[in-house]
Design a protein that fits this description.
Shape: elongated
Largest sheet: 6 strands, parallel
Strand order of the largest sheet: 3-4-2-1-5-6
Helix content: 25-40%
Order of helices and strands: EHEHEHEHEHEHEHEHHEEEEHEHEHEHH
Structural class: alpha/beta
Bound molecules: adenosine-5'-diphosphate, magnesium ion
CATH architecture of the largest domain: 3-Layer(aba) Sandwich
């Protein structure tokens, strides 16, 4: 079911109105407290600009980090407001050190058309994560309409993502939210075929539901990461000191049987005594993993065959790195997938990257702009692909 978006709102619903926008400004800060990666702030700019250009007054809400329902200076959004001001040249961007206060209310009423105010971290408030009705009511008074552009937190039913949207109407999706939903829903509902999914990362346990949900939809599901080792174990192979989840081996066996030829495991592995021993890395076939070594990346043969599969696909969905990409040379498999996907995009395929670490790997490789879509929501994209409803999306007005 499609959700209303800011594009569906007539001009008079925006001009002079206070748009309360939940954004995902949960960005990393460096040791000096400055924003070290502004990807998520930049991702919200189209929605903010769209509203400002139509004469709306923008009130921004976000969380940052995991403060324990009380003010913690190191999680203040103040540095974010400085970066935001740089990204909105010529606009008035102010910051208010509170959220559910009279001061915050007053600031929203003093805004003029085309001005922005960012309020303090919603997770400083005790009622945020408990989705408290009283807090939702207070937040609802901060705007005349509600916009959710925080896809990354849409899987949480919090006061600023769900409770407030029950009370403040219209409650619509922002442009980033819409883009996320369009790409992910498109891949699930009507993927151009062949549809290839690549799943990796550290743990099979967190991704079993995604594997189950994708198997009936994809033409091939390529597995990498430590996850592959649990499958190897299920096949009776030696996995050495690789990260294996012993309690998931039986389940992995079932999946292999159920999936048949759709589930593809790497034929070779890059092994080493440890991730610090990159110099000792070597490629072995999966039958030859030494007992005293760990698989830390897919091998070159697998990287090549996965790349070929990606290049023959029309829809490619990737979640989870192929190896310990943080420690070169174990970034090669991940890099190969990113390169192949970038090429596939150039050939007209729809390519989607979901998952925090995979997205970081793609950014690191400088290939983010070469993908059709890089999701800003790790956990949220995973839950969406599992087929779960996201409370922050569910509560928005229907088209
Ligand atoms: P995403 O955030 O993209 O969903 P995950 O969080 O599931 O990905 O997994 C990312 C982590 O998996 C990375 O920190 C990476 O080092 C780790 N990883 C990948 N392959 C291996 C491996 N073979 N052994 C141990 N860790 C691995
Ligand atoms: Mg991760």
């Amino acid at each position: 079911m499609a959700k209303l978006t800011i594009r569906d709102l007539p001009a008079d619903k925006l001009r002079g109105q206070r748009a309360l926008v939940r954004v995902d400004f949960n960005v990393p800060l460096d040791e000096h407290g400055a924003v070290s990666d502004d990807t998520r702030i930049r991702a919200a700019i189209p929605t903010i600009e769209y509203l400002l250009n139509r004469g709306a007054r923008v009130v921004l809400l976000s969380h940052l980090g995991r403060p324990k329902a009380k003010a913690e200076p190191k999680y203040s959004l103040e540095p974010v407001s400085r970066r935001l001001a740089e990204l909105l040249p010529g606009r008035s961007v102010t910051f208010v050190e509170s959220t559910d206060s009279d001061e915050a209310q007053k600031a929203t009423h003093e805004l003029k058309d085309g001005e922005v105010v960012l309020l303090e971290n919603t997770r400083f408030l005790p009622g945020e994560e408990t989705n408290d009705v009283g807090l939702s009511r207070t937040l609802a008074e901060l705007g005349d309409l509600y916009v959710n552009d925080a896809f990354g937190t849409a899987h949480r039913a919090h006061a600023s993502t769900e409770g407030v949207a029950r009370l403040l109407k219209p409650a619509v999706a922002g442009l980033l939210m819409q883009k996320e939903l369009d790409y992910l829903q498109g891949a699930l509902d009507e993927p151009k075929k062949p549809f290839v999914a690549i799943l990796g990362g550290s743990k099979i346990s967190g991704k079993i539901d995604v594997i189950e949900a994708l198997l009936p939809k994809v033409d091939a599901l390529l597995v990498g990461g430590a996850m592959a080792c649990t499958f190897y174990k299920a096949m009776g192979l030696e996995t050495g000191t690789s990260l294996v989840e012993p309690d998931r081996v039986a389940m992995a066996k079932e999946l292999i049987e159920k999936a048949g030829s759709i589930l593809i495991l790497p034929h070779d592995a890059m092994v080493a005594p440890s991730r610090e021993d990159g110099g000792k890395a070597r490629a072995v076939s999966r039958e030859n993993i030494p007992a005293d070594m760990a698989m830390l990346d897919i091998g070159p043969r697998s990287a090549e065959s996965y790349s070929r599969a990606i290049l023959s696909a029309q829809t490619v969905l990737w979640n989870g790195p192929m190896g310990v990409f943080e420690s070169p040379p174990f970034d090669k498999g991940t890099r190969a997938i990113a390169d192949a996907m970038a090429q596939a995009t150039g050939k007209g395929a729809t390519t989607i990257v979901g998952g925090g670490d995979s997205a970081a790997a793609v950014e690191q490789a400088g290939l983010a702009s070469k993908m059709s879509h890089v999701s800003t929501g790790g956990g949220a994209s995973l839950e969406f692909l599992e087929g779960k409803t996201l409370p922050g999306v569910d509560i928005l007005d229907e088209r």
